[in-house]
Amino acid sequence: xxTAAMNIPAYCEELGLKAQAASRALAxxxxxxxxxxxxxxxxxxxxxxxxxxxxxxxxxxAGEANGLSSAMLDRLKIDDAGVEKIAKAVEEVAxxxxxxxxxxxxxxxxxxxKLQKLRVPIGVVLIIFESRPNVTSDAAAxxxxxxxxxxxxxxxxxxxxxxxxxxxxxxxxxxAGLDPNAVQLVETTDRAxxxxxxxxxxxxxxxxxxxGKSLIRAVVEQAHIPVIKHYNGICHTYxxxxxxxxxxxxxxxxxxxxxxxxCNATETILLHNDVVESGLAKKICDALVAKSCEIxxxxxxxxxxxxxxxxxxxxxxEEYLDLIVxxxxxxxxxxxxxxxxxxxxxxxxxxxxxxxxxxxxFTKLVDTANAxxxxxxxxxxxxxxxxxxxxxxxxxxxHSRGPMxxxxxxxxxxxxxxxxxxxx
Length: 424
Known about the structure:
By secondary structure, this protein is α/β, with parallel strands linked by helices.
């Protein structure tokens, strides 16, 4: 059926019903069989490498024609190495332990009832994402590992890539003897479908949006189902007055320039006033300029770096996803913490320091999902944490926070074993 002829409400209701049926069937599938399915998916991805690259090329060409930035095109691209990375990520999820059935708590009540708190699937997860096609396979793998069915709605920028990857996922499910409706890709790019899916509270249990602030805000405003938010990554690196100078340069440059179009890239650098007097601040600015990075700074930053432009109030809360960084000179660690808590997105924030007390204060008082000491913000990642692929990096405080792996896509149920107890 063409998009123009599609009955969007009926289509979205059908997606939810099929996903719900598939999730209930998954409840009786062993971890070993789910892992077999994941390995079959990885094999299908490798076997269809040429198709994936061909379909991805269509998205890249459309992206260039529509003026996507180089950083966004980088997130979109799938080459030979990209295909292998996608397949390997699925296999890494398969190699992890089964998150289901774990006893989180157990005790025998005074009346003899044996009570257990067991880890179980959430059910049906709706994932709405933008330009990164690998999210299709990552999300599918993590949902299957945790026994959930999923409905995936990708952005129009990656429509051909997403369809090709989803086809591989369903091929793998079929070969493993599982219901291919356990992973369904929304076939239409009509935005009306998003609103309809967010109203399927009878069949869809949770929504996880991945994308820019406007996407997430729109999802939250429309949702009739719970949402775990992955807000934008306004990540900070704070260079304390006492620090290893070369480490400070390396971490600021790596955090900002190693890969700019990702949510864990450093967007704001805060420099203690002492490192201005020592000359370290200028070294950091010069190193960033040498990497073709545009600096938007406070008045003190402009005084030490002639290439720096004046930062506006909006810059402190901006996720650039590009070779642009905002830099502010602060008088104390307390000012740095206050700035981060005011302008940050609770994603990832780092301190560079040689002082244990400063590190402890920073990690305790900064309101963030990931607090780093003497390492790049770029390590805030499910793969780097040993979670394999990640469903996203939650900036919420309830249910899950930080990189979300398979275990974060579970909930729990209480199971009681008695031998005839009745309540008087």
